[in-house]
Amino acid sequence: MHIAAGVPRVLSALALAFNTNLFGALTHYSSGQAAVYFGAGYVELPDVFRIGFITALINTLIWGVVGTVWWKFLGLY
């Protein structure tokens, strides 16, 4: 879909690869590690969602601001 829309192949592959790693901290079932921490009782459910929301905001800031500038510097964007 990216390539058909005219996105460079390297940028498309990197974006898909990186995005798969961003969702591991969002909920108690989003990754194998999160499920173990929650299931073992180390983290309560409200804390998981609070931390996931904070992590999502930080990731959005990093990817939206820093990532855009970095890709521009590399010539990928």
Automatic annotation (TrEMBL):
Keywords: Membrane, Plastid, Plastid inner membrane, Transmembrane, Transmembrane helix. It comes from the Eukaryota. It is found in: Plastid, Chloroplast inner membrane. GO terms for molecular function: malate transmembrane transporter activity. GO terms for cellular component: chloroplast inner membrane. The keyword Transmembrane helix applies. It is a multi-pass membrane protein. The keyword Amino-acid biosynthesis does not apply. InterPro entries: CitT-rel, SLC13A/DASS. The chain crosses the membrane at residues 48-71. It holds the Pfam family Na_sulph_symp. Belongs to the SLC13A/DASS transporter (TC 2.A.47) family. DIT1 subfamily. PANTHER family: DICARBOXYLATE TRANSPORTER 2.1, CHLOROPLASTIC (PTHR42826). This is Uncharacterized protein. It comes from Eleusine coracana subsp. coracana. The gene is ga15559.
